[in-house]
C-alpha cells in the first residue's frame, strides 16, 4: 500500500492573496476557501485570473503577498492535489503507458499498476483504448486521459482548467459526467469554465472573477437567481464584462 499522508490538505485557504508579474496585478487580494463538498466553478472573462488562482491554490506559484494554507499548514507538497491544464501534454506512449508512468510517480507498487490503470481508464470511459498512442487520441480523449492521469495519486482536490473548452456537445457531456462521478467519490473539484450552462449543471458554488478580483462568490442557485453585484447580474445576463 502507498503511504498515506495522515493529514488532509483540505480546506485550501487563500487569505488576501495578491500576485504580481512584472508589476502587473494578476490576483488582487483574493480571499477564498475550497472545502470538501460540491464542485466550485470559477467563471469570468479571459484574463480575469482563473488559471492563476488555481496555480496559486495548487501551490505551484507563490503569491506576492497573502497566505495559502492546506488543512491549516503552509508549504505542503502537492501529494494530494492535482491539476489538469487546458492543453495537457501526454507522453509519447500508449494511454496505458501514460497511466503507468503517473502511477509509478504516485508510488503505487508495480504489481498494482495494471489493475489501477484499467480502473482509471474505465472511470474516464476509455476502456478499450489503452493501447492507443496517447498523442494520436482526439482532444476530448486526451482531456479524459489527462483527468485519469491526475487521479493516479488519489488527490483530495482536483483543479480542472476549462476541461470542456473546444469539445463538441457529446464530448462535453461525457466529460461533465466524468466530473460528476469524480465529485461523487468525494474528491473536491475546482474548475474554470466559460460555459455558464456547464457551471449551472456542475457547481455547488460559483466564483466570479474580474480583473484579478473576486467580484461575487455564492452557491449556484443564489448566483444565478439573485446575484448581488451589478457585475454578476450583467455576467449572468450574458453581457460582456470589460
Ligand atoms: N507569468 C505571467 N507573467 C505575466 N503575465 C501573466 C503571467 N501569468 C498570467 N499573466 C496574466 O495575468 C492575467 C490573468 O491570466 P489567467 O490565465 O490567470 O486568466 P484566466 O482567467 O485563466 O484567463 P482565460 O479565461 O483566458 O484562460 C492575464 O492577463 C495574463 O496575461
What features would you describe in this structure?
- The strands form two sheets. A six-stranded mixed β-sheet has the order 5-6-7-3-8-9, sandwiched between helices. Strands 2-1-4 form a three-stranded antiparallel β-sheet, with helices on one face.
- By secondary structure, the chain is of the alpha/beta class.
- It is globular and about 55 Å long.
- The chain contains eight helices and nine strands.
- Strand 6 (157-161), helix 5 (169-184) and strand 7 (188-192) form a beta-alpha-beta unit.
- The chain has one domain (12-237): P-loop containing nucleotide triphosphate hydrolases (Rossmann fold), CATH 3.40.50.300.
- The protein has helices at 50-58, 95-105, 110-123, 139-150, 169-184, 196-202, 220-225, 230-236; strands at residues 12-21, 24-34, 40-43, 65-70, 81-84, 157-161, 188-192, 205-210, 213-219.
- The structure holds adenosine-5'-triphosphate.
- Residues 21-22, 24, 26, 44, 46-52, 192 line the site of adenosine-5'-triphosphate.
- Adenosine-5'-triphosphate binds at residues 21-22, 24, 26, 44, 46-52, 192.
- This is ABC transporter ATP-binding protein.
- InterPro entries: AAA+_ATPase, ABC_SmlMolc_Importer, ABC_transporter-like_ATP-bd, ABC_transporter-like_CS, P-loop_NTPase.
- It comes from Pseudorhodoplanes sinuspersici.
